[in-house]
């Protein structure tokens, strides 16, 4: 239950503080995606899916993009992270960082595909690379702090 409360607080933090402080070129990192990846790498698929659906629904409730957009992408992030977890020995921080970069790229692809199907516009911009770098950097900082602890 604590993890769901933490996810809710992280969502509020992302919506209020992160969007103002960490915004670069109107791009903000997705702390919830990073949190889900870390949670999936350390827990089983069933618990990770429950948490991803909870986070996705909360984001959809507070987001104007439409219902189930974030739920679908967060669930896909968990499945992808779990797939990488099963295929690779992920104990090293470098391998975990590569998994985060790959899962973030999949997240970008899914979001672009859904937006294309919804609007008919295929938007590929440099901001996706910036988003990937920001998520990678934040994950690396969190993982490094955890390792030093």
How do the helices and strands line up, and which of them pair or pack?
Elements lengths: L1 H20 L9 H12 L2 H18 L6 H19 L5 H27 L6 H23 L1
Helix pairs in contact: 1-3, 2-3, 2-4, 3-4, 4-5, 5-6
Report on the structure:
- The chain has 149 residues and is mainly alpha-helical.
- It has one domain.
- The protein has helices spanning 2-21, 31-42, 45-62, 69-87, 93-119, 126-148.
- α3 (45-62) packs antiparallel against α4 (69-87) and α4 packs antiparallel against α5.
- The mean pLDDT is 86.
Give me a quick take on this structure.
This protein has 149 residues and is mainly α. Helices cover 80% and strands 0% of the residues.
Order of H and E elements: HHHHHH
Number of helical segments with 4 or more residues: 6
Largest sheet: none
Structural class: mainly alpha
How many structurally independent domains?
1
Show unreliable segments.
none
End-to-end separation: 24 Å
Strand proportion, as a percent range, falls in under 5%
Rg is 15 Å
Look at the structure and give the mean pLDDT: 86
**Total beta-strand segments:** 0
Shape: globular
Helix share, percent? over 70%
Provide the descriptors you would attach to this structure in a database record.
149 residues, globular, mainly alpha
